[in-house]
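Let's sit down with a protein and look at its sequence and fold side by side. We need material for that, and I hope you will provide a protein of your own picking. Once you have written the record down, we can walk along the chain together.

***
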Amino acid sequence: MRRIFGSVRSRATLGATLVVAVALVAAGAAVLLSLRSNLMEQAGNEAQRTAQNVVAQLAAGKPYDQLDLDDESPVQVVDANGTLVAASDELERISGTFTDAVKPQPQSGGTGTGAGTGDDDDADDDSGRGEAGEIGEGTEFSDGSATIDGESADYRFAAVPVEAGDRGRLTVYAGGSLDAEQSAVNTALTVMLIGFPLLLGVVAGVTWLVTRRALRPVEGIRGEMAAITASEDLARRVPVPGTHDEVARLALTTNETLAALQTSVERQRRFVADASHELRSPIASLRTQLEVGVAHPELLDLDGAVEDTVRLQGLAADLLLLARLDAGERPGDARFDLGALARERAEGRAEVTVEAGSAQVAGSRGQVGRVLTNLLDNARRHARSAVTLTVRREGEWVVAAVADDGAGVAEADRERIFERFVRLDEARSRDDGGAGLGLAIARDVAVRHGGTLTVGRAPAGGALFELRLPQAQ
């Protein structure tokens, strides 16, 4: 059961069905209440018309026994004392009115009987005839039941008052049948009880099919991702449906994520391979020298061993810094003077000319200093005679530029030199150059500080490296 309702399609179907069911129940209840109210109003209007017909007769002074009463509807005439003075001939039982009496009481004049109960002689007698009156105001309604000629039914009763001259205030109760209301409500309820489940079944089926069709591409994406996970083949991509909707965008984003993951994994693999290769050479050289020193102490090249150890130490430091940068280490927000840092890093370098004004930046002073050192070391290796280091402000940026008078960098190689373990052909020698990590570290640090590092052509014809960092606010 948990598995069935754990799917999106099942939950969507159940949710849509419940929403439609609630809407249908609410709409059905509203329809039934409206239908019942309208039919009750019609029954009340019918009862009121019947009562007003009798009231008109009473207001005209017509005797009780000559009243024209509707034999198919229950009618009662009650005086101010609550005595029934006239009623329908076939009325056998009544409830819901002022009195449940069905037989009129004899009047003091000796002629007051129910409709149709007087003799012919009485019809010509003036006793029991009252003076003309007027119709009162304020009809009241009530619900009840009555039995007429052996048939019982529910009625809506209307009570209409009338001032009948010397007979005083009378009240006429007349009933309108509720059979039509009950029949219509029962029919509508039956239709709803039969139709609603069928409609809910149709809604559930359509929702199930629509969600199945809509989620089919998602299942394809899931299946392909499972296959990629099992095969570890990051070159594979999930299918992109041609629907141009959220599912298609999900597939595109998934493929972009896979591409970025593939690039990252390949980059890590190259990094590990290149690092292993770069570490192998100084370690092998150092081991050879130490083994020779053990066997022949007089042949030990201490200067070479120290040089290899220093190179190995620098390479390990570069790898550690790259690892911290790849891990997303934050540079901090300490403020420092880039001009002063530039003069500090250029100190002791006879071939470097410094033109650095004061300019405040924020970040890691050590990492930015490492960038300047790497740029100065790179310029020294390629310069013929001179290196220039300048620091200036350009709007919201602080620019540190390192220029040399060497051969420069070909335009085709100006991005490639920032890749890890990349050395141009003329700088392949490990004696003259490094491991190819200096410029990669410099760009990564610049990006981490919200800046850029680019290379172009210097005025003297060599390479011009420009480090741009946002000025500290």
Remarks:
- Helices lie at 8-59, 120-124, 179-231, 246-295, 302-326, 338-346, 365-382, 438-448.
- Residues 1-233 form one domain.
- Residues 8 and 211 are 8 Å apart (CA to CA).
